Each structure stands twice: as C-alpha cells, then as structure tokens.
Fold this protein.
Amino acid sequence: MMISTKGRYALRVIIDLAENGGDGYVPMKLVAQRQGISLKYLERILPMLVADGLLEGVTGKGGGYRLSRAPEDITAGEVLRVTEGDIAPVSCLECNAEVCPRKDNCRTLPMWNKLNNLVSEYLDSVTIKDLMKS
C-alpha cells in the first residue's frame, strides 16, 4: 500500500485548517501558500473532503473552508479513505471485492487480514488533534 500525494496533501490541509482556522473560514489560497501546494491541485481534493463531510466550504467574500468537526473527532484513517479509497494491502480485501476463488486455500490470507487490521486500527486511532503542533 502506498499513500498518494492526494492523501498526504489532504491530511496537511486538514491539519492546517485545524491549526489556523479558529471558528472562521480560511481561504484555500492561504492554505496552499502555507503548505506549498498548488491551488489547482487542492481544487481537486477539497470537493472530496466536503462531499464526505470532513470540511465545510463557503464561496464568495469571506468564504473558504473549515473543519466540519473538532480535530479530535477526525481520524487520519477517515481522511485517507476519502482520498485513497480503500487502503487494503491486497485487492481481495478491498471493500466490495469479489470473493477470491482461492480464499479457502490461501496460505497468505491470514497474514494480509492481520496487516489490514493493524493498519486500519492504527490510522483510525490517530486524530487530527494528535497530528497538530503542541
């Protein structure tokens, strides 16, 4: 499993909003500047985060983005699942995957299941608040 730029940038954006947003909306242009990320690239990521309910967005004067929940209520796992889709280490463990015909005889399936559970449990235990500056 390799986390893409999209997933890494989404985490950076959410952490930035948590650290710099207060109660207001933050223009994405400012986040892009602080994070050194192309605004054009962020415009592809932000709709995903809004659609999934992690961010709220307002257009026009005074507009921008803010977290929809407190930083302690958003996990790294949530953010990565929104941007990456499934984070399973092998295709047979992805959501909605067809049942593998080798499932009953697969010697490696228990290992992949355990890895999948460890990664998911860890990412779901790390909150945005954990990732913020102390």
Notes: Strands lie at 55-58, 64-67.
